[in-house]
Structure formats: structure tokens, C-alpha cells
Amino acid sequence: MVNVNSVLDVSLTGCVDDGTVPRCLDWEGVLPQGLVSSPGGVLVSKLIRELRQACFRCDPEFDLGLVDAGIRLALDAHSDQKRLSGEPFVTHPLAVANILAGLGVSAPVVTAAVCHDVLEDTGVTVDMLSNATSVEVARLVEAVSKIVVPASGGVDSQAATLQKMLTAALGDPRVVLIKSADRLHNMRTLGALPPEKQDRIALETREVYAPLAFRIGASVIARELEDLAFQRLEPEMFGMVSQLIARLSPQRDAMLTKVTSELSRELKAAGLECVISGRTKHVWSTYKKVVNLDPGDWDEMLGVWDLVGVRVVCENVRDCYATLGVVHELWRPLPNRFRDYIASPKFNLYQSLHVNVLGPGGVPVEIQIRTQEMHERATIGVAAHWAYKKGGPPTTQDLEWMLRLVEWQTTADTAEEYLEAVVAELTEDEIQVFTPSGEMVSLPAGATALDFAYQIHTDIGHGATGVKIDGQPGLLTGQLQPGVTVQVLGGRRSGPDLEWFRVVRTPRAREAIKRWFGKAARQLTNEPTTPTSQQTV
Ligand code: MN
């Protein structure tokens, strides 16, 4: 039996004794009596204390008053609800808010996370929420609540979820950020559910949530989602790869120390103020590197390709390129392994310089160089514009790919088709190729020269008659290799070939070709919804 006063002490002591975080709201009037006297009350107090500390750490000016108002409302609204684990329900939204606060998001996002489930299954209305917190918080929670789909577990509900997420993301990517953190906490606490349900949720996480989180650039959340789904769905393989990482880590850490100290010495000598850190490996991405290899070769292969990753965060873009110069002077760069995502950001607006060098002792090292702002975007993605205090929202052009995915539903005839197409698009690896003038163009792996042409401009696609790859004649329908220079030839032709529709990989090219053929193309895709319908061309 937990003493009421000792529970309250936990929260108050934590805040006051910390000496930095402003005093908590008055718990005595807030924690419902039933909650305080239960063991769950200890956990609730701990989560509230950690949440407030995380907010304060991220910004001493953080609007804790807003967060406290949200906490008060959530405690009250969920007071008689429990999770399947038996813990008070409010531990869930508090944990979700903790995840986001740890990533350094702003007060309205944290508060919306605290309140993200109050509209769904308590008596709280949007107006009540808005009055208690703010209009912005209420809008966010309303958008998050709209994404909830009856969990039939089938393809239909997955497709519906994805479509709603994408639509919401277009309006405000912070909504997807909150949904991703929501799913992350549900995945962390999956064990309380019946095994069948665990599998279904893990599968949906792998198929829908992780790719989407990754695609909006919320990489920290996406990586953990991938690992948790992997652990649930393939426990044995997960264990093997985890052991591999553990086996290699002493070797890697020693190497990392060497690289970091040499690099920081040289950067200092060049007058550059940068922060260097080692990158942690996650299990799923390591698995993907070794999946086609014999487990006996894992250690050796991984050692060659993937031993050390270093990240350098600089003050500004100019320093990033200066740092690149220092790196190149210090270690020999590996040919064809340099990527300038600062000049040409990825789809999800990710920016960095990636360079592979032969580091100390001839061991390959991958170095990522970026500014603090780029680093924030690499952590929580496009939502960074909104989620942090500074910076304006991304332009429509920035989010063009997202718009494309939402629009795609109008050309997909069944939920299966939509889900398959969008997930394929979300999970696709990217390749980079170049225009004759040296501009980098990002395309999904497997894209053809036609996709490249349509990516540049619809008219260039429609008018394409041939292509030169690295100066040599190539096939318009051929798949592009990373790093090649592509020159589209054209002018004599009046429009696309219907056959192209089967070949192109990107939604943009498919859309353009479809639009050109209008009715003919609709017939093409409206035929019975079997995969063979496309072969009737
Ligand atoms: Mn939730």
C-alpha cells in the first residue's frame, strides 16, 4: 500500500530539489484520490516530473504553464481509465509527451501529446480542451483524433490509416509526429496485449508507421519503431543481429575514439568550432546490410563496410564545406562515395554532406557533416519547421511528394492497390543521378531514364525519344544506376508511349502518362483489380 503523502513527495521533491525546474502545479488538487493511493500514482508522478524536466532542459523559457494545464486536463479526463497492463491510462499520453519532449519540440506539441487521447474516449470536447490549453493545442489534438480508424486489422484499415495520416501531414506534419510517438509508446508496451494483436500491430508498424515516420524525416522515432517491430516479428533474427552489434562494438568504440580525437585536433587547428559525435547503429538497418550474407561472414563484411560512423555538426554551411576540406586532407576519400545533400536535399528535406574515407589504419569511416538546423531536421523531420520555435513552415514545394501520395488515391482503385503503391513509394531506397549540368536529382531505386525525364519536367518526359547515360546511348526504359549523368534526347515525338506506363517507377511519371491518355489509361487501370490487368497493353 502506497502512502498518499509519499506519492506526492515523489513529484514535489523531484521538482523542487532539482533546483532549476520551476515549481510544479499543485498536485494535491489535481491527482484524483484513487490514483494517488495506487502504485500507479508513483509512475504518474515520475512521468510528470521527467516531462517537465525534459521541457525545461530543452528551453528554460519553455511554456510549462501550458504543459501543466494539459497535464491537469488529462489527469482529470482519464482518471477512471486503465491500460491493459493495469497502469493508469494517463501514463500513456504522459509517456508519449516525454518521447517528444526528449526530441526538443515546442510547448504546444508537448501539450497536444499529453492531451492526444482526451477527445477520443472521454467526455472532453474540443471547446473544453481549447479553453483549458490553447486553440493551437486543440486543433492539433482534433487532427490527431481524426486519424483513428476502426481496427479491423485488414488492408482496408491500413490503407485508410495511411491516407488519413498523409492528409493530416499535409495540413501539419506535427500531427504525424504525435501519431508516430503515440505508436512508439504502444510498441514499447506491446507485451500487455494478446499475442495475435501484438503481431497485427507490429506488422502495421513496420508497413505503415515506420515508413511514414521515416519519410517525414522523423528518423529517431522511425528507427525505434523498426527495431521494435523487428523484435516482435522475428525475435530470433533480432537476437542474432543484436549480438553481432554487441560483438563489434568494442572494436568500433576504439576506432571511434581515434577518429574523433584526430578530427577534432585538425578542426581546431583550422579554427572550426564543430561538435563531433559517434553514430549509434540500429538493429534493423544492420540486419538489412547482412540479410543476404551467410551469418558466418557477418562479422567480416560488416567490419569492412560499416565499422564507424561519425557526425560533425557545424555552425553554418560554410563551415560544413570547410570541415569537408579538412577531412579530405586528413584521410583519403573513397571514390564515388561523396554525397552533397546540402546542395540537393533528399525528398524528406534531409540535408548533410556524406563522405567516406579511409580512416586511421585504412579502416573505412563514414562522416556526415551538417549544421545544427539540418541536424534538428534529421531528427524530427519536416515537422521541425513547425515543431521548433524558430523558422517558417516548409513551402508546398517542400512537401510536394506528400501531396503526390495523397492525390494518388484518386488513381488507385482498391485499398490494396493504394496501400501497396504508397508503401512501396515510402520505403523505396533513393538513388542520386545527375543532369548534364551537374545538378543532382533524387529518384527511387529502380527508376528509369523516363522517370528522370518526367522528374525534370512533364514536357521533357512526353517528348523523350532517347537518352544518353554518361555520354553513351542508353535505353529510356532502362533502370538507372546511382551516380550516372543522364541526358534526355527529344523533340520529335508528340507524346508518350502507352507501354511506358508499365515501366515507370515514380507516381509523377505514372500520373503524367495517365493524364495524357485520359480515358484509355483509365480503362487500363480500371480493368478487374488483378495484377494482370496491367499486362493487357
Ligand atoms: Mn494514444
Rg (C-alpha, Å): 26 Å
Q: Indicate the proportion of strand residues.
A: 5-15%
* Structural class assignment: alpha+beta
Mean pLDDT reading: 80
Please outline the major beta sheet.
Answer: 6 strands, mixed
What are the distinct ligands in this entry? manganese (II) ion
Name the shape in a single word. globular
Show unreliable segments: 1-19, 527-537
Give the count of helical stretches: 26
Q: How many beta-strand segments?
A: 11
Q: For the record, give the distance between the C-alpha atoms at the N and C termini, rounded to a whole number.
A: 73 Å
Summarize the amount of helix as a percent range. Answer: 55-70%
Summarize the structure in words.
By secondary structure, this protein is an alpha+beta fold. Helix content is 56%, strand content 10%. Strands 1, 2, 3, 4, 5 and 6 form a six-stranded mixed beta sheet that branches. A three-stranded antiparallel beta sheet has the order 10-9-11. Helix 4 packs parallel to helix 6 (107-114) and helix 10 (155-171) packs across helix 21. The longest helix is centred in the middle third of the chain and has 35 residues, at 235-269. The protein is globular and about 75 Å long. The termini are far apart. The relative contact order is 0.06. Mean pLDDT is 80; it is low at 1-19 and 527-537. Manganese (II) ion binds next to loops.
